[in-house]
Design a protein that fits this description.
Blueprint (H helix, E strand, L loop, with lengths): L15 E3 L8 H7 L4 E4 L2 E11 L26 E6 L3 E8 L6 E12 L1 H8 L11 H8 L15 E6 L1 H7 L6 E4 L13 E4 L15
Antiparallel strand pairs: 1-7, 2-3, 2-7, 3-6, 3-9, 4-5, 5-6, 8-9
Helix pairs in contact: 2-3
Length: 214
Amino acid sequence: MPRTTPDPAHRHTPPLVPAAIDFSAPADVVARRLIGVTLLVDGVGGVIVETEAYDQTDPASHTFGGPTARNAAMFGPPGRAYVYRSYGLHWCINTVCREAGHGAGVLLRALEPTHGIDMQQVRRGLQDVRLLCAGPGRLAQALGIDASFNGLPLDQPPFALLEPGAAATAAAGDGPLEVVAGPRIGISKAVDVPWRFGLRGSRYLSRAFAAGKV
């Protein structure tokens, strides 16, 4: 049967509050800021542990060639979802960044599941919690994301972006998150741009990082 309890590391998770994220900032800034933030879709999700940034000036970005029907949401207001299908198989979700008309975003590559793990296991058809959201296609499937989410605001239901409040963080004695950076994955252009970010030491990444810290 699907596992119904969260990973033991999250049995004492402090109360979460809405995360204050400036999506009008450059994509690489937002990509780093999202590490450690909890993403929920209808109450199902987890802690973001891996992201990738893309910008209109970046040859690897969907927006590099200008607006199209497929990438229109990525040129929209910041703080919305850009959902696309990869290779005709897997849905992927991005957060739109910068001002409307610019064309920048952050691909959500991996989560550490913390909420609704049983539902994620049913959607993914597997039990291994580490593999539920380890990759953008897996993440979208586990959270039930498809084309109907394209263009929706990330600060309104069904989405929620949350993090521990300042008081809870101080009480727990938690310091700044350690974020590592490196080249993005699965692209053929701008392959050396270090715009992939991850939570150091996470077991839930789609792929390990080389040594380094931002």
